[in-house]
Structures are given as C-alpha cells and as structure tokens.
C-alpha cells in the first residue's frame, strides 16, 4: 500500500516537473493567476445563483442586461496595466449576474432531481481539467488552427437558432445541445493553448483570459444541465 502511494507520488512529481520543463516561469505564473481568477469567478456565479434560488436577491431581467453591458465593457475597456482591479471587479460582477440568470434553470431542475446539478457540475469539472491538461501537454500551438473552425460552427449554430425560433424543430434543438457540448470542449483546448501563446507574445491580460475560459465552462455546464434534464424527463414519461 505504501509502495503504491509512493509510486503515485513519484508519477505526480514527474508530471509536474514535465510541465515545469515545458513552460517558462512567467507562463506558469500567468496560468496560475488565470485559473485562480477563473475559480473565484465561478464562486461568484454560484453565489448569484444561490441568492436567486433562495429568493434573497432576484435581479430578473436586469441581470441579463448587466451581463451584456459588463461583457461589452470588458471587451472595450482594455487592460492598460493600471485598471486591473476595476476590470477584475467587472468580471466578478459578470459572474454574479450570470449566476442570477442561471438561477431559474437550477431551481426548475431542483424541483425535478437535484442530483442532475451535481452530475453536470462534476462532468464539467472533470472535462475542463482533463482537456486543459491535454492542451498543456500537447505540442505547443498544435490546436490553434481550431479557432477559425470553431467560430464558424458557433456562427452557424446561432443562425440555426434564429431559424428554429420560427420552425421550432425539436431535432435541431437537441442537435445544437449535443454539438454545443463538443464545441465548448474544443474551445477549452483552443483557449488554453491560445492563452499560452498570447502570454509568450506579451499579452498578460489575466481578466480577459479568465473570461474566455469562463465562457467555455459556463456554456458547457448549462448545456449539460439541459441534456441531463431532458433525458430524465424522457425516462419518466
């Protein structure tokens, strides 16, 4: 038993040393900051959702409007080296408002089966960790070519969504959900390598890089929630 634990520890140390050899100290430091900000933004999202579900604070439509304003603000209010705290506050506010908009869906799922939320959360977390490590351990820049393809797929899905508001095809809706999960998974790989590449080129915008990954994680989590709920409801019929 002790020998097995030692083997696991040795493999983990070799893995961490491999990452250390692959990436420069300033890149590792940047990634650490990005993941810490990502985690705290996810915590703000959880707080926003919990307050909405408990009916302690419900911003309603204002939350949706605020998310749009905040994400546009973060896009146009570029990092200048002096506005980090302001932009970080905007990101946390965006995470909180995103949780407020997610609250009604979570409340509905809780009324059906709360275990769905834990399953979707676990699936999202495991997928994010696995794909992030895969991107970091892969050949540097190997998946950057995915960027253009993924944007094209997102644009096509958005166009189909507009058409589906008229035709209301269940097949299109379900297809978009499943395709969306794979697209977000691919975005995690792409964004991870893109962040490393940008960092090496001098772009150390922690807030923007955390926002990119937050979009991927939140979109995947939302889609998994809907897919798992629909599956459960189909079994219950």
From TrEMBL:
UniProt similarity note: Belongs to the BI1 family.
Gene Ontology biological process: apoptotic process; cellular response to starvation; cellular response to unfolded protein; endoplasmic reticulum calcium ion homeostasis; negative regulation of apoptotic signaling pathway; negative regulation of autophagy; negative regulation of RNA splicing
Keyword Ribonucleoprotein recorded: no
Coiled coil: none
Predominant location: membrane
Gene Ontology CC: one annotated term: endoplasmic reticulum
Subcellular location: Membrane
Protein name, UniProt field: Uncharacterized protein, isoform B
Pfam families hit by this protein: Bax1-I
Membrane topology (UniProt): Multi-pass membrane protein
Keywords recorded for this protein, A-Z: Apoptosis, Membrane, Transmembrane, Transmembrane helix
GO molecular function annotations of the record: enzyme binding
Origin organism lineage: Eukaryota, Metazoa, Ecdysozoa, Arthropoda, Hexapoda
Entry's transmembrane regions: 34-53, 59-77, 89-109, 115-136, 143-164, 170-190
